[in-house]
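Here's what a typical entry looks like (Imidazole glycerol phosphate synthase subunit HisH):
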Amino acid sequence: MDVVLLESGGSNIQSVKAAFARLGVEACMTADPERIRRATHVVLPGVGAAAAAMATLKSNGLIDLIPTLTQPLLGVCVGMQLLFEHSEEGDTRCLGLLPGVVRRFDRVAGLRIPHMGWNQLTIAAPHPLLAGISMGSYAYFVHSYHAAPGPSTLATCDYGGAFAAVVGAGNIFGAQLHPERSALVGSRLLQNFLSIRT
C-alpha cells in the first residue's frame, strides 16, 4: 500500500495523514510527479478556497499530471470540489474530471453557511467505496460550496436541498464529508478506498 497526498495547500493535510496512520498506512505528502505516479492510491485533500488550491496545484506542476493518473484518486472536501469543471468560489476553473459546477449554498431562511457539523448520508448507488456504510449514517461536514447530485453521485446529504456528499466515476472519487473527522463512517470510507484497485 503506497498512499500519497498531493500538495494542494489544504489545512487538513495533517489530519488526513493521521486518519490513514490510524489504519496502519503511512501517507506521504508530495508534489513530485514520479513519486505520485508510483503510488497505489492518491489523495487530494483540501480545506480552504478553490482558487487558492488550484493555484497551488498549478505552481506545483500538478494540473496536467492529475488527469493522467490511473490509480484510485480521492478528493476530500475542497479536493472533491476541484474534481468538477468549475467552482463559483472565485470563479475558478477546476480539473474537469467530473461533470458539474460547484455552487455556494443559497441563503434561505434558517440555513447557516457554512454547513458545519454532523449530517446524514443517503446512499444513492451501491459502490465498493460505501461498503459497510448504511443509509442514514452520520458524517461530519464543513463547507459553504457544494455540487448538485449528478451521474457520478454515490451518496447525498440534505442541507436546504440535496447535494453530492460522495462521488465516484472510474478511478476518480470524492468525499465532501471529512472522513478524517467522521469517526467510524470516515474510517470505513478510507478503508474502502484503499481496497479499490484500478
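Residues 3-194 form a domain with the Rossmann fold fold (CATH 3.40.50.880).

More examples are in the samples folder.
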